[in-house]
């Protein structure tokens, strides 16, 4: 079974120049294309499967005729479709185009955009100079490596439809689908306005796409969403919104980079550091000791910050105390920071993962937490082949029979440090936890490691119906039920009886009032159990 926390390094190479040969060519991908070409690609591919009469018929330039009349196809309509897509994206010079596919070739000659190199948004003409019946035109809608994706209208059997196909035989003269490629024609220009790149704008700039109402504020290259409720308290001036390219706006990440220090734009003394999209509160002791005081302090929208402050750091992120006071390393798993021993740091590959510095006070709180209930965990090193489910900080063993029968095999498996796991396995399940087996309706309450069965009267009378009911693996639960008495030190109380009993040496003794108080026993640790259990435990 794979361990979810193992990391693989991914290295991305880039080149400053593009090289081409007669056989192969390297060219830019759609991700780096312009707003115009991205728009052409999106418009064309959105028509996938449509026929000649979609939108009442396709018609682009002023010299083109509609592909549809009275619900019927009027003529071969590949040129109409390509012209319609170009027109929707403001391409100039469309008066050169007609219903003939060759008119796109003429367009390229007239405006000097005819090329043997494909670009996203280009028209690709087939069989130039052939008969009307065998020429064709479509649009380049994607480029990836040596593969070109092409979308066209009037494709397939009569009466034709819009379809998309990819090929590595894109060179001029090639015939990937039976028709010879004659050339690629780029748009000569666009009537649409040019918008600035969001990355070029200063922090704090409000931006939006011309195609929608959503507003974002630029923070360290990220576009943080601004809610309507933020405008007044955060003092955002909507008259200063900058319009940016739609595709660039939509691709903005919504969280500032890890390590960015932020505060609520509406005010307040709290400061946070962004780690993997989560906002971690910076304590007073960490502000200077961790060097957060010398970083730029960025105001962010109130609503976004409230959500980010409740977000967990992603499972698998490795963290450390930013101040260096705690030299240990931890891995985040479902909200808990799990200690990594020195031996496990390298042996389990944690040293290969990105190490994030976090506020020391926040880390202490996270280290006191365990992964959320129901999380399935395993030893990251595979030294222990078993699987466990987390319940209130205890790792409960899952038997082989229950792995599939109870659906644990369908949950994500989280690799955790083996030393931490050993401690969680040996940890006694928290007193007062209400549990049951998936295949048995009997309900139990945990008391000193023993699972004590509850009648319905006990379940409601002792108030356990108001607590979460946790489902445990049956074999583990059966062993907890079989224990004769709760562990030594467990304090028990029966309904209607004021006497608190403590288990000592497998027997019970009555406790005195003097044993409770500051620095002594706490009534919060007393477990309410059925009177039958207390009666069954012999008196010391």
How is this fold's topology laid out?
Layout: H1 35-45, E1 68-69, E2 72-73, H2 78-88, H3 102-111, E3 114-115, E4 123-126, E5 136-144, E6 147-155, E7 161-167, E8 181-185, E9 206-208, E10 215-219, E11 222-226, E12 242-243, H4 246-250, E13 261-264, E14 272-275, E15 278-281, H5 284-289, E16 297-300, H6 302-310, E17 318-321, E18 329-333, E19 336-340, H7 342-347, E20 355-358, H8 360-367, E21 376-379, E22 387-391, E23 394-398, H9 400-405, E24 413-416, H10 418-426, E25 434-437, E26 440-447, E27 450-454, H11 456-461, E28 469-472, H12 474-482, E29 491-494, E30 500-504, E31 507-510, E32 526-529, H13 531-536
Parallel strand pairs: 9-12, 13-16, 17-20, 21-24, 25-28, 29-32
Antiparallel strand pairs: 1-2, 3-8, 4-5, 4-8, 5-6, 6-7, 9-10, 10-11, 13-14, 14-15, 17-18, 18-19, 21-22, 22-23, 25-26, 26-27, 29-30, 30-31
What is the end-to-end distance? Answer: 50 Å
| Principal-axis shape | elongated
Structural class: alpha+beta
Which sequence of strands runs across the widest sheet?
A: 3-8-4-5-6-7
- Mean pLDDT comes to 90
| Low-confidence sequence ranges | 1-32
The helix tally amounts to 13
Q: What would you report as the Rg, rounded to the nearest angstrom?
A: 34 Å
What is the total tally of β strands? 32
Determine the fraction of residues in helical runs and give it as a percent range: 10-25%
Biggest sheet record: 6 strands, antiparallel
Specify the oligomeric state. Answer: single chain
Name the beta content range. 25-35%
């Amino acid at each position: 079974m794979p361990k979810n926390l193992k990391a693989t390094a991914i290295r991305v190479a880039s080149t400053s120049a593009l090289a081409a040969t007669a056989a192969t060519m390297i060219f830019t991908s759609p991700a780096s294309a312009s707003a115009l070409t991205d728009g052409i690609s999106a418009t064309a591919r959105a028509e996938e499967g449509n026929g000649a009469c979609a939108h009442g018929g396709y018609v682009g330039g002023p010299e083109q005729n509609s592909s549809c009349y009275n619900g019927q196809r009027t003529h071969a309509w590949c040129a109409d479709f390509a012209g319609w897509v170009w027109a929707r994206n403001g391409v100039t010079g469309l008066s050169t185009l007609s219903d003939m596919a060759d008119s796109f070739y003429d367009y390229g000659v007239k405006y000097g955009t005819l090329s043997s190199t494909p670009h996203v948004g280009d028209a690709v003409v087939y069989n130039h100079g052939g008969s009307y019946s065998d020429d064709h035109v479509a649009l380049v809608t994607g480029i990836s490596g040596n593969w070109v994706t092409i979308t066209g209208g009037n494709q397939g059997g009569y009466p034709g439809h819009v379809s998309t196909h990819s090929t590595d035989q894109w060179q001029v003269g090639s015939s990937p689908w039976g028709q010879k490629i004659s050339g690629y024609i780029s748009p000569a220009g666009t009537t649409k306005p040019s918008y600035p790149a969001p990355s070029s704008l200063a922090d704090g700039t409000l931006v939006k796409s011309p195609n929608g109402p959503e507003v974002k504020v630029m923070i360290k290259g990220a576009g943080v969403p601004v809610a309507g409720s933020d405008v007044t308290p955060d003092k955002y001036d909507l008259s200063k919104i900058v319009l940016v390219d739609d595709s660039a706006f939509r691709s903005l990440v919504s969280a500032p980079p890890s390590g960015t220090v932020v505060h609520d734009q509406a005010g307040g003394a709290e400061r946070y550091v962004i780690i993997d999209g989560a906002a971690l509160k910076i304590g007073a002791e960490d502000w200077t000791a961790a060097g957060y005081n010398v970083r730029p302090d960025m105001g962010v929208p109130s609503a976004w910050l409230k959500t980010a402050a409740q977000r967990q750091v992603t499972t698998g992120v490795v963290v450390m105390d930013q101040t260096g006071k705690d030299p240990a390393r931890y891995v985040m798993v479902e909200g808990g920071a799990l200690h990594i021993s020195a031996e496990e740091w390298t042996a389990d590959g944690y040293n290969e993962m990105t190490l994030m510095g976090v506020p020391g006070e926040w880390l202490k709180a996270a280290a006191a937490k365990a992964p959320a209930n129901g999380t399935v965990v395993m030893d990251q090193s595979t030294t222990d082949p078993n699987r466990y489910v987390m319940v209130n900080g205890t790792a409960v063993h899952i038997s082989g029979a229950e792995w599939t029968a109870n659906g644990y095999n369908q949950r994500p498996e989280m690799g955790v440090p083996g030393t931490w796991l050993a401690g969680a396995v040996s940890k006694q399940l928290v007193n007062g936890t209400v549990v049951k087996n998936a295949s048995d309706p009997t309900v139990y309450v945990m008391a000193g490691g023993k699972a004590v069965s509850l009648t319905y009267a006990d379940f409601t009378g002792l108030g356990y119906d108001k607590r979460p009911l946790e489902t445990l693996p049956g074999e583990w639960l059966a062993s907890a039920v079989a224990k004769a008495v709760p562990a030594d030190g467990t304090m028990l109380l029966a309904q209607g009886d004021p006497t608190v009993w403590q288990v000592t040496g497998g027997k019970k003794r009555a406790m005195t009032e003097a044993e409770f108080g500051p620095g002594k026993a706490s009534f919060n640790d007393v477990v309410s159990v059925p009177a039958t259990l207390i009666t069954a435990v012999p008196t010391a």
